[in-house]
Design a protein that fits this description.
Layout: E1 4-7, H1 10-26, E2 27-28, E3 31-33, E4 36-38, E5 42-43, E6 51-53, H2 57-67, H3 70-82, E7 93-95, E8 98-99, H4 110-121, H5 124-145, E9 154-155, E10 196-197, H6 199-218, H7 222-242, E11 244-245, E12 250-251, E13 253-254, E14 260-261, H8 267-273, H9 279-290, E15 325-326, H10 327-332, H11 334-337, H12 343-359, E16 366-367, H13 381-395, E17 397-400, E18 403-408, E19 416-423, E20 426-433, E21 436-441, E22 444-450, E23 453-457, E24 463-467, E25 474-480, E26 486-491, E27 496-498
């Protein structure tokens, strides 16, 4: 699959090209690990991070690889599978030839990104390999990070969650508990209020089990799929029972004294990212925290800590999850905004991030949630992935299994744009001129669209849905070019309207 994007908004067009070239530069064809050189194009984190982390590397590889080099997506998974220890432990990172083993540092479950990758490639050997590795990883987490048998995941150190320099850990002595004792993720510090039951780590455990169920079912192992779904449900219930505070509508760590560690931070969005809560509870959390300008809905969403929280850090150092809006959070946001039916709010967030990225001299890790000013580092892969993914979701085409999502919207300060993507039926092309959108596949013009919306077509090119992605009602007119048939409709924000066309 190979995407392309151009627009007469020169700043945006240049920034997109820069992201593609920057990611190519960060994809190493020869990646050193413990003195060996892997013959795989590993996408590293970039900037000051000359390696790959379990927390984010598989997702970044998936996003970039899906558009430009699927080998990168596979390599960013296989490097963890290939160096899995005999006891099932997955390395937490690879940096400068060394293998990390002092924390778990997981966020988006590698089982989930692996299954999403399989759905693109239909590589059965990769699916079986991923399933075996992720089963053993779950076994390791049960043995060493759930000693009380609660179906949750315990936090042993600060780096377990990747929340560097966050006041989430204000109870711990600063700098004393970055990683586990003896550089061994199986050992918890015998100090302070550790271990903690962690909502985000437990959500990752839950999401991984849901993905394992999907893998097992895909391979025809229904009994195993049922087993993983049962395990996942036990984890979901435990998260809600132990780690959710209904009064504050938030998830918190629970320390060894059964007291909440109260900070309204990014752990909340990570629980949402794994779809732990149902729609009803999500709506309450979304209103209370996410779209609250005193919570996470700053001019440039989403800060790593709610801005009204007493532990928000107004003078952060570099690489701080104590306040700045992080590119990694932005990269994960579509995974839960879309699931819970909030594409209109996601549109606002994506526009703000692309504006800030286009104005920034390079691709950096974090930004001021009020001004959009980025940190001074350069060449950060997650920010480049945000550029690619958000451009496709706002002005381009997304392939989701056997569907194509056509995002009919003209970039701001532009009169024309064109987005191209390889699809199962050939080259898919989305052209927008002054708000009039043309949908084409393999040189055949299929539909013209007036108005801003998302159009969902099936694998034969027929429209199934239109979705409201603006913050206000939108008037839509669609013409099927083969026979001139026309449909007019008004779509509300986040509305899904079925159209057999």
């Amino acid at each position: 699959m190979n995407a392309a994007f151009k627009t007469d908004n020169q700043k945006l067009s240049y920034k997109y090209r820069s992201a593609v070239e920057g990611l190519k530069s960060n994809a190493y064809n020869a990646f050193p690990v413990e003195g060996n050189t892997l013959n795989m194009p590993i996408l590293i984190e970039g900037s000051v991070y000359r390696g790959i982390w379990l927390e984010c590397g598989p997702l970044e590889g998936l996003i970039y690889g899906s558009l430009y080099d699927i080998g990168v997506a596979e390599a960013n998974h296989n490097v963890f599978f290939d160096f899995q220890r005999e006891d099932g432990y997955l390395p937490c990172w690879f940096i400068n030839g060394k293998i990390g083993k002092g924390q778990i540092q997981m966020v988006v479950p590698i089982a989930k990104t692996a299954f999403e990758l399989y759905k693109q490639t239909n590589n059965g050997a990769f699916l079986e390999k991923a399933y075996r590795a992720c089963k053993r990883w779950d076994d390791w987490l049960v043995k060493y990070r759930d000693p009380r048998g609660l179906n949750l995941c315990e936090l042993f150190c600060e780096f377990d969650t990747g929340h560097d320099n966050s006041n989430r850990f204000y109870q711990l002595c600063k700098g004393s508990f970055h990683s586990c004792p003896e550089d061994d993720a199986r050992i918890c510090h015998n100090a302070g209020t550790l271990p903690w039951l962690a909502p985000d780590l437990s959500a990752t455990l839950y999401g991984g089990r849901v993905a394992l169920a999907a893998m097992a079912l895909e391979m025809g192992h229904k009994n195993e799929a049922d087993y993983w779904l049962e395990k996942a449900e036990m984890t979901r219930r435990a998260i809600l029972a132990f780690l959710f505070d209904p009064e504050s509508m938030c998830f918190f760590d629970l320390d060894c004294n059964c007291r909440f560690v109260r900070i309204v931070g990014d752990a909340l969005s990570r629980v949402l990212c794994e779809h732990v809560v149902d729609q009803s509870l999500f709506e309450q959390i979304f209103k209370r925290h996410i779209i609250n300008p005193y919570g996470f809905w700053t001019p440039y969403p989403m800060p790593s800590v709610a801005v009204s929280d007493p532990l928000f850090n107004h003078n952060p150092q570099f690489n701080s999850w104590g306040g700045p809006a992080q590119a990694l959070t932005a990269l994960r946001a579509p995974r839960w905004f879309e699931h819970y039916g909030k594409p209109s709010e996601l549109t606002h967030m994506m526009k703000q991030w692309l504006k800030a990225l286009a104005d920034s001299p390079d691709f950096s890790q974090e930004m001021n949630p009020w001004t959009g000013e980025f940190s001074k580092d350069t060449g950060y892969s997650p920010a480049m992935c945000v550029m690619l993914d958000y451009t496709a979701r706002l002005y381009g085409i997304k392939k989701v299994e056997d569907k194509l999502e056509w995002n009919c919207r003209l970039p701001e300060d532009a009169a024309a744009s064109i987005y191209e993507l390889d699809s199962d039926r050939g080259r898919a092309i989305l052209k927008n001129n002054n708000g009039n959108t043309l949908i084409s596949i393999e040189d055949e013009n299929i539909y013209s669209v007036k108005g801003i919306c998302r159009v969902i077509t099936n694998n034969t090119g027929c429209i199934e849905l239109i979705i409201g992605t603006e913050q206000a009602d939108a008037d839509i007119e669609i013409v099927r070019l083969s026979d001139g048939m026309k449909i007019s409709a008004k779509v509300r924000p986040n509305e899904k309207r079925a159209i057999g066309f």
